[in-house]
Amino acid sequence: MHTTTVERIIRPARNINGSLRLPGDKSISHRYAMLGAFAEGTSRFTNFSTGADCASTLACMKALGAKVNRISGEAVDVTGVAGRVTPCGHPLDCGNSGSTMRMISGLLAPQKGEFTLIGDASLSRRPMERIRKPLELMGARLTLTEGHAPLTIHGGPLRPMDYATPVPSAQVKTCILLAGLQTVGTTTVREAVRTRDHSELALRAFGAKLARTVDSVSISGPQALHAIDAAVPGDISSAAFFMCAAALFPDSGLVLDSLGLNPTRASLLDVLTALGVHISVLNLEEKHAELVGTVQVSAPAEGLGSTEVSGALAAQLIDELPVLAAIAPYTSGGIRIRDAKELRVKESDRISLVVKNLRAMGAEVAEFEDGLDVPGGQALHGATIDSGGDHRIAMAFSVAALRAEGETLIQGAESAAISFPEFFDLLDLVAER
């Protein structure tokens, strides 16, 4: 299959100003789509993610017997299968979405039948052993191809277990909880670093009972889920690009409405505050256990300072690290990133691509196995950026380009549609040139 590659020219900006409402959170949209499709009754989700990844989840659930009806661009009705999926005669295509493949595996492992999951070339390179091990400990049978997709699940009844995740991963945790939801007894997941908790909150919203401690979550099965009506909060990982853009201009003023501010995702606000960015949160409220609010962002007149992201913070900010690294040259003291080896097994090797592209723009940067050091006080010039077909790299360097000298050419700009098709239009809306 031949995919058209799109190039995009980013011109320097004078300032970032304006107000945006962002598309629905990708992580929450994935989970609502799966749980709504598995539940009893019809759920309606407004502001559902417009990204291709969440469309892959909807398509897989539709193939398994759920009814999916898009009411408008951002609203979707999902009628669930009431806990019993129908095996389809063809492989389930997860596209570029590791979230879809890893989480849906937990949903399918206890079901009767055989299910094969496939993905595109990028997804077929990403590690899937991390879900095979816990599911096989529960008694599931999975066949992988050298640790990767295609992945075949031979479904059947499972047994509960108590499992400590070796690598912090919200997707692995979710996979196990979705299997535990359908398994007689209590299944517990322990994690040394707390990962995002959208699955726990979503399961509760759909009527499931879970027990949580500081470092574990337990689910007793089997439990039935019931349909909900919910508005998906704006995606804070998408907002990261605009917040970082606003951080680069001393006179900036950016307002982001109805933004998801889940504490396990909002660490970016702390990091930006540490750099000196002024952030105010207004109208904070709770919707289906998720915190939602309006965020105002403006940059400090004296410029950005310096910070380090490592340990538990690196795990929580894994999606936002590329854009933080991309703006690091413009800080006074630089940004140091460690304990982020997971970046090497995302849609691309994000560490090496960030390093390659920063150097192309004239920056000094030191690369490490688990991160990078980007000194501050550097001036960047326009360059040709290799996105590696990775949406977050394409968007991160579009932000870096706003303060560079001259034009920047983003190769593979179409990859932004994986998570955020509206990105370039919204950037044009707030970038004053």
Report on the architecture of this protein:
- With 433 residues, the chain is of the alpha/beta class.
- The chain has two domains: 218 residues, Enolpyruvate transferase domain (UDP-n-acetylglucosamine1-carboxyvinyl-transferase, Chain); 205 residues, UDP-n-acetylglucosamine1-carboxyvinyl-transferase, Chain, CATH 3.65.10.
- The chain contains 13 helices and 24 strands.
- It has a five-stranded mixed beta sheet. Strands 4-5-3-14 form a four-stranded mixed beta sheet, with helices on one face. Strands 6-7-9-8 form a four-stranded mixed beta sheet.
- Strand 8 and strand 9 form a beta hairpin.
- The protein starts with 6 loop residues before the first strand and ends with a strand.
Task: Summarize the helices and strands and which ones pair or pack.
Layout: E1 7-10, E2 15-21, H1 26-38, E3 42-46, H2 52-63, E4 67-70, E5 76-79, E6 92-93, H3 98-108, E7 113-118, H4 129-137, E8 141-145, E9 148-155, E10 162-164, H5 170-180, E11 185-190, H6 198-205, E12 210-212, E13 216-221, E14 229-231, H7 236-247, E15 253-260, H8 267-274, E16 278-287, E17 290-298, E18 306-309, H9 312-316, H10 321-327, E19 334-337, H11 350-360, E20 366-368, E21 371-374, E22 384-386, H12 391-400, E23 408-411, H13 423-430, E24 431-432
Parallel strand pairs: 2-15, 3-14, 6-7, 10-11, 18-19, 22-23
Antiparallel strand pairs: 1-23, 2-24, 3-5, 4-5, 7-9, 8-9, 11-13, 12-13, 15-17, 16-17, 19-21, 20-21
Helix pairs in contact: 1-2, 1-6, 3-5, 4-5, 7-12, 10-12
